[in-house]
Amino acid sequence: MQPNWIVLSLTLAYMAVMGLISFSARRYAKSAGSFTSGGTRYHAFLIGFLLMSEFIGTATSVGTTQTAYKVGLSAAWNVLALAIGFLLYGVLLASRFKQLGENTISGALAKAYGRPTKLATSIIMIFALQIVAVSTYAGGGTILAGLLNVDRTSAIIITGAVATLYVSVGGMRSVIYTNVLHALVKYIGILVAVAFGLSQLGGLGALQERVPERMFAVDAVGWPQIFAWLVAGIGAVFSTQYVIQAINTVEDGRTARQASFYCALLLVPFGICAALVGVCAAALLPGIPAIQALPSLIARMDDLLAAVVVAGLAGSLFGTISALSIGAATLLYKDFYLSRLRTEEGASSLRFVRIATILVGLIPIPLAIFAPDILKVTFLAKSLRATLAVLVLFAFYAPHFGSPRAAVISILASLVLTIGWFLAGDPLGIDNAYVALVIPLVVMAFAQARKNAMPSTEPATSL
């Protein structure tokens, strides 16, 4: 089987257009601040599309179809959980983050809990973003391997190298413009994939006849898994670095809420369509590895349809990596470089943030080669952010609950115990997302109980 050069050429042409857009945005990234913020204000619908684009990368697309191939439409809960998260984010946090004026999650938590919490938050957030990058590379490598007819390892290395070059060009402004176009093409691509799959089967009715009835059950994946996805998804939305960066590019709190609601509205049909593609693949291509569900379906399309779907997947891959890399680089710049070594922005600051963007783009490559279950790896990163989500809610709605030291302990304990629980295979059937959720609740509650038990004349500074 030879590479499909027509599909490859059209996809490369699409990416060349994205490169031109990114290069044109370079002139607005003249400082580290403008590189990480975008340098202007944007419309709510544009930012809603941007937020959606960052959450529907190849890890979500390939991962959802992979899971749907095995369990059916209930795999869509993986994306629907994000939609619910953005609804709640719009109601509870969007305007508050905008009014706070901080474009990092660590800076927001530092307002309530101090510098140690700021540094601990940066560590866990950078780690979580790198995990998402691992799953993004793995999903992109899977698609590229089928397209180029190369092995998966080579595809991941190619993906990482190209994406890293793409990321470091135009900063946040290029991410906004290119990701909106990526999201549009990606949306069209998933609709094309659904239409193609159903047409191959003879319609939705024929699909239902070809697969077990449980594949269309709302809860086939299991309610424990659904609730775990909700915890992890809502936590990810509440505490992800690039969500805060995007929200801070709008005019005011009202616009921030609108952007969140637009994103939620756009996520629902995408999640359902991605899962439906997996079910179609199960009916058309029984017996293949689940991770090959979407690539194998693409391989059955004619050149033009395949080019649309692959272009959307490639675009979302590079767009997601851009957002992840800029998010991690912003944290490194603001929390570790600027606060210790510089008091003002300059050429050296811009150079640092560009180099940091490249480094955080390259580090996940070797790890992605050993990531067989994309959705599980992505889910771990969401779980880790559930701890930060709890602390964010405390910071805005109960700032005196617990203590700064307890907040630091919560973050560090969650980093160790949640990953340990994941690596142990989620013992006792308890998902690692629940571990990440419970740890800050228990630690902060214990700190509050200690404070309440202290005589009023003693300072309540210890855990």
Describe the structure.
The chain is an all-alpha fold. It has one domain (5-453): Up-down Bundle (Sodium/glucose cotransporter). It has helices spanning 5-24, 32-37, 44-55, 58-71, 77-92, 94-100, 105-113, 115-148, 152-167, 171-201, 204-210, 223-239, 241-247, 253-284, 293-299, 303-341, 347-362, 364-368, 374-397, 404-423, 432-453. Helix 3 (44-55) packs across helix 10 (171-201). The model is unreliable at 457-463 (pLDDT under 50).
Short description:
This protein is an all-alpha fold and 463 residues long. Helices cover 78% and strands 0% of the residues. The chain has one domain (5-453): Up-down Bundle (Sodium/glucose cotransporter).
Task: Set down the secondary structure blueprint.
Elements: H1 5-24, H2 32-37, H3 44-55, H4 58-71, H5 77-92, H6 94-100, H7 105-113, H8 115-148, H9 152-167, H10 171-201, H11 204-210, H12 223-239, H13 241-247, H14 253-284, H15 293-299, H16 303-341, H17 347-362, H18 364-368, H19 374-397, H20 404-423, H21 432-453
